[in-house]
Amino acid sequence: MAQEVHIVATLAPKADKVDRFKDLMSQMCKDVHAKEEGSTHRYILTEQLGTPEGEPKFVMVETYKDKNAADSHTQTDHFKQLFGVMEKEGLLREGPWLAQTVSKAGFERDRKLI
Length: 114
Prior knowledge:
Elements: E1 5-13, H1 18-35, E2 40-47, E3 58-64, H2 67-73, H3 77-89, E4 92-101
Antiparallel strand pairs: 1-3, 1-4, 2-3
Helix pairs in contact: 1-3
């Protein structure tokens, strides 16, 4: 059986672009929920509290059914469109950081779309 893959990604929008960023990410969450149902188990946008630099920073917490599903996500039209808009509008103050991980211990309770 294939192992689930988790992605943790940090995104740092410019302070004056936070509302636009959140609107785009909210739509992205809806698109992933609707279009990647069989492969994406979790796709949650969170906002980091108390960033050292005092600037807004967001953390995506994602879970895919396997590595292929995680890799395929970045090839979807909605993913490419999102990052195209972010680049065109200059929304991010720095490039995204991400890590692909696999579970080693812990638990998870059922969750629903936020």
